Amino acid sequence: MKRKSFKKLILAMAVLLICLSFSGPLLAQESGTYSFSEDSGLNAAANRAGYDVAEASTVEDIIGIVIYLFLGLLGVIFFVLVLYGGFTWMIAQGNEEKVKKSTAVIMDALLGLIVVLAAYALSYFLINAFWK
After folding, report:
1. What is the per-residue pLDDT for 126?
2. Distance linking the first and last C-alpha atoms of the chain
3. Cα–Cα dist 3/10, whole Å
4. Of 2, 41, 90, 105, which has the most beta carbons under 10 Å away?
5. Which sign does the torsion angle of CA 71, 74, 76, 79 carry?
6. CA distance linking residue 34 with residue 38, whole number of Å
């Protein structure tokens, strides 16, 4: 059995090596030689789209950035929890206790994600309704 899995590993590594050998060179530039704010057109595109390209200077802007980053981190955490639950479900090998534990992890992660998204939506609605 070990010999068969070893052959599969060698085959997978060979396929990976062949696929990676066709990748092109990285044509990276030196750091500091190009500034996106100068002539790339990103500022003009952002202005036309209605985005404020100025730096965050007010307390509200900074709090908004922190909340945005925190929600992104929570999204990653919930995604990892769902992956963990799915992985433990797949390796449970029919053990009912492990299957129940993994489904509980998945359901808790999805419930947590729903709660966080609902809280964000509610706060976004209330802030836009009463602040502006």
Report:
1. 82
2. 68
3. 11
4. 105
5. negative
6. 8
